[in-house]
Each structure stands twice: as structure tokens, then as C-alpha cells.
Amino acid sequence: MYSRFEKCRSAGARSPDCRPAVSYAEGLLSRGFADAQRLLSRWWLFAIGFAITLTVGEHAAFAEAAPPDAPADANLPPSAAAVVVTPPKLLSKSAIAYPVGAHGSAEVELELLVDQRGVVTEVAIVRGEPPFGDAAKLAAADWRFEPALRNGQPVNARIRFAVTFTEPVAPSSNEGPAPTDDAEAPAPASATPPAASPPTAAPVSITVLGRRPEPAPSFSGAEVRQLPGAFGDPFRAIEAMPGVIPVASGAPYFYVRGAPPGNIGYYFDGVRVPVLFHAALGPAVISPWFIDEVKLFPGGYPARFGRFAGGIVTADAAEPKNQLRGVASLRVFDAGGMVEVPFDNGRGNVMAGGRYSYSAAALSLLSPDIDIGYWDYQVRASYDVTPDDRVGVLAIGAYDYTSRERDGKVAPLYDVSFHRLDLRYDHRFSATRRLRLAATAGIDRTLAADLTQGAEEPSLDVVARPYGARLEYFDRAAENVELRAGADVISEKSEILTGLVQTGGNLPFFPPEDLLTFGARADVVWGLTPFVTVIPGVRFDLYRTRSFAQIPGATVPAVEPRLSARFRVNDRVELFHDFGLAHQMPSYIVSISGFQPSLENGLQQSVQMSSGVSTDWPGGINATFTLFQNVLFNGTDRLAIANLRVADEALPADARSLGRTVGAELLVKRDLTRRLGGFLAYTLSRSTRSLGRSEGPSAIDRTHVLNFALGYDLGRNWRLGTRLVFYSGLPAKVAYVAAAQSPPRVRPFYRIDWRLEKRWPFGERRYLSLIFEFLNTTLSREVLRASCSALYCAEDVFGPVSVPSIGIEAAL
Q1: Mean pLDDT, rounded, for 451-469
Q2: Beta strands 782-788 and 793-798: pairing type?
Q3: 354 contacts 340 by C-beta, under 8 angstroms
Q4: 793 membership: H or E segment, kind and range
Q5: Inter-residue contact 399 to 355 (CB < 8 Å)
Q6: Among 209, 515, 686, 777, which residue's Cβ finds the most Cβ atoms within 10 Å?
């Protein structure tokens, strides 16, 4: 890329464009922060006014609604309240956990606001003491209903439920199958799910058993649909979570608390996903209709996750509705859909979906020599063989292709595909003990050309075939103790189909190795009191590689203790602490399927610590503040240490660094599906790297990262949302190692995204939506790299990356 750096080097320091580094950096920062300050001041004025206006409008609308005990639609006049309505009908069957450490029986009365989509948007405790009231309120937020109907049209409704907690009793032999940990299962027979009743009827009583969810920053699938800039993709919502720094604006690759994308693990329904996003700023490889909720564990995560030295991103599979239904989507760059078919009176269920991109047709109009395409698929099926046994299968796969025509020949630049087949068997011993056995097989292929050499044939072509099996076990050993355990083994064999690229030290491609990994883990959720819960745990992993060419094989063990604690001060305030040790094989900046750096120099290791407080505020607002520190030993993140080398000095092929990231995170959130919803996510952090005697900020260190979003229901099924993204500048590369400890920084970056949706409902759960989205409406350009000498600085500016989209979505 031709930059001012090249211009200055050829023209000399006398050029007026070549200023001393210090004065240039000072001017750059001063202008950048001044621009950012002006932008933020105007945005906050707009946001404050917008929030006040919409809040007043929301309260006014609800003031006109019917009394709380009668179904009411905020968009209809009071005169329509006399029309006979059909009350909401419960669809989900999730059980409520009997609080760990609690004793005896208790009754809790809840008031729910069920919106026109059947989503619970408000939960209030009318009557009930902690910890039972908290458990009921937490579970009720995940219930799903068929919405109340007025003259056949969905309306908002307020209803009340009575939840009766009874201490667990001796298990029976016919309570139905239940998987472990992340798996889904039919509700136990001892837990009769609640059913909505008319407000005039007596509250419904239920008896419940289950497990408590683990706290983690998350967005539900319904919320992600309303997040501007995410294009309805649950995994793209990761960018908006605290502690997350994208490599570049709009790019689907992230640093999490200083850990690079290659150190982040991605899972869907318990299966690791090797490639999370399609190429060329494409969507995730898992369709949003298969995802219920995306959670981010930035550190100190549960013992069931391992082999990654950074964070964990996991997506919970959406619960089948057990009814014939389908969803279709048509956008500027792709089309997709999903269909669900129950059979055998609900004992079996099949969901199938996928996406296909026709980007090549659109791109050919702008650049005829470039061809880009992708597709993906997901199939999930299950069948209850007996009341205690369930068999299931999950199949997922994706393909990406990019080529360029040169001199009449087509050069494949990027060709990546993967497929996974997961067979699982779930058995329930009792309401408190369950087991899952699963086997996974797959195939990955990575093919690419050396773009720097102008190659017309692929210079990297590797095929990997992973096979694995796992066991998961859950047991509520006592009323205040839950045991979670498991073991797994994975064998991955790789094959080179073409020669390797010699990159001169820029990116050391090592030959692939046959890798065998064995792991075992266990943790205990121990309720010391109704207000104190501790979760001690441990993992053990064994890595073994086969010798290849001149690289010897190795066998390396890893022991990882984990400890979490939760202290509930009252029904609104909770303190939490997390600690964990994690190990990982050497990795690249971005995971490359079937291609693994050598284990010769040992594993990467990280120590992850965090403490924080979570509070519930009136109006359905939750605020979480967290302090954290992550330390990475023997790291292989070459991008982060690029600034520690001077001039054109190449990094050693086996460079290992010490990394440290400290910071604070703030998340203030009100469900985006509410009439007025939004969130504020802010991260203040400092990420450093040490390489030999050199030390300084990581090349991707951004001191401030801010995401601020608002969404509002305009009425008549119109919904508007907007989002501000702000990053402070990256550190520049300097000419002297001594200056690397405090280098100048480039100017900050900001962008504003918008989303507008119009929906036309047609009876129960059927609708047609027209969606307008725009990523980076400000057309902001981002500085991704800068180099400074004693006389001048030069920037590499990227963008603007601006993506408009028009889409149609239909549900039948």
C-alpha cells in the first residue's frame, strides 16, 4: 500500500509533509480527540433528548393501557378493551432451579408482560422472598408464549403466575431424558411447566427442579435482531460486548481481554466450530434461527471449556417449537431459510436450514475479475426412544470461495470448507442425574494462494480429519451441591496436498501434525448458604503430536484449576469473583483449519482473574461492573508484538512473548426487545507485550472502547434502532526500541449504525418484515497502522467499510 511513509522516504525530511514524529503525533492526537469530543458531546445531547422523549412516550402509552390484571395492547385505545381476548399460551418448557442452599417450600407470585411476539419483556415479583423470588424471576424471563390475541391480532398482555417451590424428592423412574450441561431436554415429570390463564382465574401452581444458569455477558436471539450493525447475526453481537476489541471495524475477528482471535474458542450446541464467519465481511456460518442465545466467557470460564488461552464464545441452540413452521430471508448479498417438522406426535423433531450467497453476481458488476461466494447448512434431529432415552444428530457445514481472473486464468485465492457430524445419546437416570454420550466426525480443507507472489495456483492446500468422542455427566448430589463432570478425546489427522509457502518470517507456516488430545474435567456448584455459592473445578488435558520431517513429536500435560464465587447481597445486588488457568496449543492470529504450528516450544498459558458487581435497577435495567487482569505466557500472537521490532527487522519464526492486559468493563443494559431498550458497553484497558528486552503496548491496544445503542418501537409495527461505536487510537510503530514503551497513537475511530424494520403480522407467529440496515453511515475511515521515525510519521488508512443492506424476512 502506497502511503505517506513511502512519499517521505523518497522526498526526504525537507518535504513539508514530513514533520517530526513528536509534533506530528501531538497534532494527530489533539485533532483526533477534539473531533471525538465534539462528536461525543453532540451524540450524548441527542441520546439524552431521545431517551427522555421516548421514555415519556412509553409511560404515557402504558398509562392509557388497561389495568395490569387485564390483557392490554399499548397501541390500541382504551375503548377497545371490552373486546374478548385469547390469553397467552405457554410454549417453552424450561424448569426453574430450586435455589442451591435453600430449604423448605415457598410460593412466589410474578407479574409478566408478554409482548406481541410472545416474549416476556417485564418480570415483577408481586409476592415472594429471596432466594425463591430471584430464581422464579430469572427463569420467567426465558419463557416463550403464544401471544394474546384480540380479534385474531397479537397484542401485549399482563398476566400473573404463582410459582410453588418444593424441596426435591426422591427421583422416579419415568421422568424423561435429560442431557448434561449445555444440552436441552424435555421437562422432568416432577416439574409441571406453568400455563397462562386469564387474569381473572386463579394463579397456576407449579413444582420445579433444574439448574442455575451461569452468569456471562449475553444477547438473546431476539435482541440480536434489533442490534444495529449486527445484521441479525448473533455472533456479530460479540463485537458490542465489553472487553471485546475488533481487529478492524466491521471485521468479524476480535481480541477479547487482550487475547487474539486464534485464542478464542467458538462452540455451538457443544460442538466446536472451526471457522466462525464467512469471508469478505460475511455473516456467521450458523444461521440465526438455530441460535437462542450467545454468551461470552472472557475469562475464568467453567471447567467444561478448555484448550483455549483466551475467551470462550458459546451459542445455545434454539429450542424446537414442535410445530410445523418455516422462516425465509432475502437480502442484498444472500438468501436463507429454516424449516421445522415434528413427527410421531412430538416424540421426534427435525430442523434444517442454511444460507447461500450470490455476492459474486453483485460484485461482478463492480469488479468482473473477482469471484466471491459462500454457503452453509445446519440440520438437527432428535427422537425420544423411551421416556428416559433420546437420540439425536447435529450436522453443520460451511464453504467459502474467493478467486481472481488474471490473463484469462482463474486463480483460487481462498477456498475453505468444513463439515461436522455429531451423534448424541442422552439418558436420564432420575430428575437429578443425567448423562450424554456423543461422537463427532468432520473434515476441513484450507486452500489458498500466495497473494504476495501473484500465484495462479494454490500454494497451500491442507485437509484435516478430526474425530472425537465425549461424555458429560450432571448430578445434583444434594440439595445444595451440583456435580458437573466430563471427558473427551479428539484425534486430528492432517494431509498436505500441495507445497508450503515460504513467507520470509512474516507468518511461519509449520507442517501439520497428527494431534491427539485427551481431556477430563469436573466442577462442583456448592451452595454454602442461600447467599453464597462457590464453584471449584479442575481440568486435565494431554496433548500428543507425532514427529514430522525435522520436527520431533511431543507429549505435554496441562492442569487447570478454576474457581468462581457468587455472593448475593440482596435481591438486587450480587458480587462475583472468577479465577482460572488455561493452556492452548501454539496458534496463528486467526485459526486455520487443518494447519497447526509446532508444539516443540510448548503450550501457551494464561492466568485469568476478574471481580465485579451486578445490580438490578427499576425498569428492567441491569448494570455490571468488572475489574479484570489476564496474563499470557509463551504467547504466539505475532500481530500484537509487531510494534516491538524496529524498522524492517523481521520477527523470529518461533517468537514467543509475555502479554498482560488489565482493565475495567461496564455494561448497562435494558432488553433491546422492550419498547424502549438499549445498552452502554464501555471498556477501559491496557494491553502490553514483552519480547526479549523490548516491552510496550500491544499493537492492538485501544485504551477506550465504547458501544452505545438505543432501540424504540415507533408503533404500527415500526421499530428504529441506532448505535454508536467508538475506539481510541492504536499505538504507532517507532524507529527505536526505547520509544516502544510509550509510542504515539493514531487518531480515534467512530461510526454510527442504523436499523429500521417494518413488520406485517399475519395471525399467530406469521409475519413479513422489511428491514433496512446501514453499517457505518458516517463513512468513517480507520487508521490500522502507523510508522514513526525521528522525523516523520506515516499512516495506513483503511476504508471506509460501509455496508448498506435491504432485506425481506418471512415466517410461516
Answers
A1: 70
A2: antiparallel
A3: no
A4: strand 793-798
A5: no
A6: 209
Q: Measure the CA–CA gap between 634 and 587, rounded to whole angstroms.
A: 11
Q: Where in the chain is the domain with CATH 3.30.2420.10?
A: 70-210
CA end-to-end distance (rounded Å), the chain: 49
For 132, the grid coordinates are 425463591
The dihedrals phi and psi of 147, each to the nearest 5 degrees, come to -65, 160
Domain range 70-210, its CATH number among 3.30.2420.10, 3.30.710.10, 3.20.20.60, 3.40.718.10? 3.30.2420.10
Cβ-based neighbour number of residue 119 at 10 Å: 20
Assess whether pLDDT exceeds 50 at residue 11: no
Q: How many Cβ atoms from other residues are within 10 Å of residue 29's Cβ?
A: 17
CB count, 10 Å around CB of 200? 8
Cell numbers found for residue 70:
387485564
d(CA 380, CA 353): 9
Band the pLDDT of 215: cuts 50, 70, 90: low
The CATH class for the domain spanning 234-811 reads: mainly beta
- Please state, in angstroms and rounded to a whole number, the distance separating the CA atoms of residues 392 and 350: 10
pLDDT of residue 707: 95
d(CA 326, CA 314): 25
pLDDT in tens, 691-741: 877 788 988 899 999 999 999 999 888 999 999 999 998 888 887 766 777
Residue 456 in grid coordinates: 495462479
Q: Tell me the three cell numbers of residue 67.
A: 389495568
What's the pLDDT tens digit per position in 556-600? 999 999 999 999 998 889 999 999 999 999 888 877 766 667 777
This prediction's pTM: 0.72
Alpha carbon distance 394, 266 (integer Å): 16
Q: Shortest CA distance to 71 belongs to which of 63, 60, 83?
A: 83
Q: CATH 2.40.170.20 spans which residues of the chain?
A: 234-811
Handedness of CA 184, 186, 189, 194 (dihedral sign): positive
Are the CB atoms for 104 and 136 separated by under 8 Å?
no
- Name the residue type at position 40: L
> Distance of CA 50 to CAs 354, 711, 737, Å?
38, 10, 48
Q: What percent of the chain has pLDDT over 70?
A: 73
Q: By C-alpha distance, which of 374, 358, 371 is closest to 403?
A: 371
Backbone angles phi, psi at 356, to 5 degrees: -135, 135
User: What gap in Å lies between CA 72 and CA 78, rounded to an integer?
Assistant: 9
For strands 733-734 and 749-761, give the pairing. unpaired
Query: Are 659 and 631 in contact, with CB atoms under 8 Å apart?
Result: yes
Confidence of residue 338 (pLDDT cuts 50, 70, 90): very high
Rounded to whole angstroms, the Cα distance separating 264 from 253 reads 10
Could you give the CA distance from residue 191 to residue 360 in angstroms, rounded to a whole number? Answer: 52
